[in-house]
Amino acid sequence: MFKSKKLNKLKGISHGFFNKKGGKSKGIYKSLNCGPGSNDKKINVIKNLKIVKNKLGKKTKEIFLLYQIHSNKFVYISKDQKINKKKIQADAIITDQKKLPIGILTADCVPILIYDNNSKIIAAIHAGWRGAYKGIVDRVIKFMVKKGCDRKNIHAAIGPCISQKNYNVGEDFLRKFIKKNKRNRVFFKKRGNSIYFNLPKYVKSQLKLNKISNIDQIKLDTFDKKNNFFSARRSLRLKDDDYGRNISIIMIN
Predict the structure, then answer these.
(1) Which of 15, 31, 173, 217 is 20 to 30 A (C-alpha) from 49?
(2) Are 106 and 126 spatial neighbours (Cβ–Cβ below 8 Å)?
(3) Cβ-based burial of 168 (10 A; exposed 0-12, middle 13-18, buried ≥19)
(4) DSSP letter string over 86-118?
């Protein structure tokens, strides 16, 4: 488990970015696969989620997860709201409810954990290129502000994700971003005939555009095998038929 140094200094929350170590799954899912949407044995995923939950505290509620769809949709869970067991289709969770761990699953995409230490509101965002492009970061921050958060009190931690050097994209991908904003060219690098996209830098820029200055980034590449994270792109290269999911969680104590 990895922690954000900035979030770790703040009182009132627990959080963690988990890699693939320390679970019960076997084979290509070895070992802490937390993805119910994978083809792993469901019992192993349930056991793995329990291991993660117990890292935060045994008296916490079950980890709240989404059915992630690479969108700009989010769900807000208020203090008094009862948890619906049915999976909600969205890519971010915002809550002010205590003892409720909210989790995001990734396998190269960017996990973002957010906390306003004054308003006591947390958020977890799954930001793949589609969600980031569609403005999920912008929508979450604006909703938090609407709920009484002050931008200067919002702390954001960008978790482990794929690095630019391992994220090659096509010309159509580049053109899509340039068409949206010519300034997006800074997030791309050309080497020979290949184009590489800097997803974490793009996500970080969206936080900055929302005037969030308290930003921490854990610079670990999920594609790099030595870091022990699940990686969709690495699995594709190895011609595996599926892959596990890393979990990132945050909770108000």
Answers:
(1) 217
(2) yes
(3) middle
(4) SPPB-SEEEE--BT--EEEEESSSEEEEEEETT
Largest pairwise CA distance in the chain: 56
Torsion angle, CA of 91/210/217/250, rounded to 10 degrees?
Answer: -50
Residues of 172-195 as b/e, b for ≥16 C-beta within 10 angstroms?
ebbeebeeeeeebeebbeeeeeeb
Of 17, 15, 14, 24, nearest to 1 (Cα)?
A: 17
- The Cα–Cα gap between 101 and 212 comes to 23
- Dump pLDDT digits (tens) for 181-221: 999 999 999 999 999 999 999 999 999 999 999 999 999 99
Tell whether omega for the bond before 194 is within 30 degrees of 0, i.e. cis: no
CATH number for the 5-159+212-252 domain, one of 3.30.300.20, 3.40.640.10, 3.60.140.10, 3.40.50.1980? Answer: 3.60.140.10
Per-residue exposure over 112-140, b if at least 16 CB sit within 10 Å of its own CB, e if not: bbbbbbebbbbbbbbbbbebbbbebbebb
Would you state the pLDDT for residue 61?
94
Q: What is the pLDDT of residues 131-150, one digit of tens each?
A: 999 999 999 999 999 999 99
